[in-house]
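Bumping my old thread because nobody answered last time. Still need a sequence for this structure:
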């Protein structure tokens, strides 16, 4: 089965990598974070891989266990998603700026991210998500906030 590459799929990748980076920087295992947040480890694992959808209750619980606000996590996810678009443009020569209006009338963004997925590969997009999330948190660490 071919992976669907659209705004939602890419956002899920970004969300997963942001959560994983926060967890690892906090020195927590998946099992430890899942237990502290009151969520299942399998759900946390799926979300970190970009295969599951994190609802607001899940984000609030995980954020609390990580010692931050859910809004901070969402902000990090949004910024990671935007950085992924810029990096995909540079690496793949494909215009995928997620801040622009979607090309298709349904608003799914399948056109821009599908081109990026075709140019770079879905696995590479996952790598971009990981790098963008790590860079964001590293920059914040250097600024002291």
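Sorry it took so long. Here it is:
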């Amino acid at each position: 089965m071919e992976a669907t590459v659209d705004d939602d799929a890419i956002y899920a990748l970004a969300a997963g990598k942001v959560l994983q980076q926060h967890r690892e920087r906090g020195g927590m295992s998946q099992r430890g974070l899942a237990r502290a947040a009151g969520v299942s480890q399998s759900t946390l694992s799926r979300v970190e891989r970009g295969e599951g959808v994190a609802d607001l209750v899940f984000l609030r619980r995980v954020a609390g266990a990580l010692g931050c606000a859910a809004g901070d996590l969402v902000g990090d996810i949004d910024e990671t998603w935007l950085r992924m678009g810029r990096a995909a443009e540079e690496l793949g020569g494909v215009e995928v700026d997620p801040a622009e209006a979607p090309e298709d009338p349904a608003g799914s963004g399948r056109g821009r991210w599908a081109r990026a997925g075709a140019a770079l590969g879905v696995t590479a997009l996952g790598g971009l998500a990981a790098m963008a999330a790590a860079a964001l948190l590293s920059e914040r660490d250097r600024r002291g906030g």
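The chain has one domain: 7-138. Let me know if any region looks off to you.
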